[in-house]
Amino acid sequence: MRTHKILHGIIYHALILTLGLVMIYPVVWMVMGSFKNNTEILNGIALFPASFHMTNYVNGWKGFGRITFATFFANSFYITILSTIGTTISSALVAYAFCRIPFKGKKIWFTCMLSTLMLPSQLVLIPQYIIFMKLHMINTYVPLVLPHFLGQAFFIYMMMQFMEGIPKELDEAAFIDGCSKYSIFTRIIFPLLSPALITTVIIQFYWKWDEFLQPLIYLNKPAKYPASIAIKMFADASSTTDYGAMFAMSSLALIPVFCIFLFFNRYLMEGISTSGLKG
Amino acid sequence: MNQKGRRFLYNDNTVGYVFAMPFIVGFLCFTIIPMGVSLYFSFTKYNMLSHPVFVGVRNYIRIFTDDARFPKSIRVTFFYVVVSVILKLSFALLVAVLLTRKAKFLGFYRSIYYLPSLVGGSVSVALVWKQLFATKGLFNNLRVAMGLSRLSWFGDPKLAIWPLILMSVWQFGSSMIIFAAGLKQIPTTYYEAATIDGAGAVRRFFSITLPCLSPVILFNLIMQMITGFMSFTQVYIISNGTGDPNDATNFIALYTYNQAFKYNDMGYASAIAWVLLVIISIVTYVLFRTSHHWVFYGNE
């Protein structure tokens, strides 16, 4: 009976682990590919390179037409960090209003917020583009960053759910002690919200980092491109694709996401399971 | 500040609107006004160079009668959404159930299975996918190793959609985490009672796990469906923005994008976007309306 149980355990773990390896294989293959030469990438079945070359990283980093990946990554960080700060602060403000303050029209606005979660982005993309074009904001980061300072429905909802868990007695005690509703937010709610804020920062960071469609539409000067668009340029039909360089830069682009995964996994998992975000 | 101003400032209505202001401004400027503009454009011919010309419902007539690419795009998108969402959620549920038993390394395993969801939306992974399914890519090499012939995954209209479906299914991680959180909520006493009554593992799954989890399933279904309908980056990268071969991967999001930004036909693209909104609304509504037949909420 006991050996049966151990055997069962071994089979279980072997199965889960094998499937897990299959799952992460494409990512490992890409990282390994960044150390191979192009013929090895295109023809080889072997996962590991015959010898580790750094040439792909050197070639890839040179970028396109004098613009190196230093620029592209700097652009990515700039867009991503600004957007993340914007989302976090503005969503916390709005969540506080919806969760704690009884004001006229609250229900209607709340319904509006939930409905934006289901709105296909294509619908507003075209008019938004035309509006920003008329305002001469193409090739600036305004269209990419500004909407984030006006609250993101998904994160507002997530923060509201977290805020429900903060005891109302704290607000009441502070109110009796003479705190206004404004200082209740800055002194009590905002500091206590920090786990939800961290989750927001993490998720928004990696969403924005990966973003493709918006920069594709709003930016057409290579000097303004974020890494996601620049990497795509390796595969553009006009020239033969340098797969090694492409995988090298792709691997670099995944590093921030991997770091989040390694260091903030717990917040990520909690964020997903409380609010159910999409993949 | 005088008494009156103070009272106004600390009034709940004022406080509420001050804090909700970012959302209200954003909602008006980035949702309501664009929607109105988009609705107007959908009744015009507009190429961004000249002024929009009002053409009535001609764009809508063109969508339904005069554009063979549109119904095909809808068919392809529906096929993609239905197959990938069903497979993805089944996988997510299966793995979530497998990973709830008390075993070591569960957190580690969950992380591994979650990783594809985290990186899957990126351009990098789409490019890798394209290479994995290339003529001399890994999947074809595996087929050769098994004695099968090489397939032209992205050249054959019958095959081209499958790498995309597989890529979506591969990212089952976030649905899995949501299922795992739902599974934790099911009281273990249910299972104990069922076991005493002689129910086997399969019976327990269908009679306890599935019904208890049904609200979570509905939620996942709707979220994944909407994501599927809007999926763009992967197909844009893999087909180089064309939806080839022969429109076999011309997803509705890609088609709208091309109509707007490649052919500069903003009016027609807006009309397509509105049709898409109506379709998503109908599907969501049907899911909600039929959900009381199969979704069980507690205390019933």
Number of strands of chain A: 0
**N-to-C SSE series of chain B?**
HHEEHHHHHHHHHHHH
How far apart are the first and last residues' alpha carbons of chain A, in Å? 42 Å
| Oligomeric description of these chains | heterodimer
Helix content of chain B: over 70%
Mean of all residue-level pLDDT scores of chain A: 87
Helical segment count of chain A: 15
Radius of gyration of chain B, in Å, reads: 25 Å
| Head-to-tail CA distance between termini of chain B | 55 Å
> Largest sheet of chain A at a glance?
none
Strand order of the largest sheet of chain B: 1-2
Shape of chain A: flat
**Coarse morphology of chain B:** globular
Binned strand content of chain B: under 5%
- Tell me how many strands of chain B there are: 2
Written description of the protein model:
The complex is a heterodimer of chains A (279) and B (300). Chain A contains 15 helices and no strands. Chain A has 279 residues and is mainly alpha-helical. Chain B has 300 residues and is mainly alpha-helical. Chain B has helices at residues 3-10, 12-41, 58-65, 69-98, 106-119, 123-132, 138-145, 161-170, 173-185, 188-196, 201-229, 233-238, 252-262, 266-294; strands at 44-45, 53-54. A two-stranded antiparallel ribbon of chain B has the order 1-2. In chain B, a hairpin with a 7-residue loop joins strand 1 and strand 2 (53-54). Chain B is globular. In chain B, 40% of the residues are buried. Chains A and B meet through helix 1, helix 2, helix 4, helix 5 and helix 6 of A and helix 2, helix 5, helix 6, helix 7 and helix 9 of B.
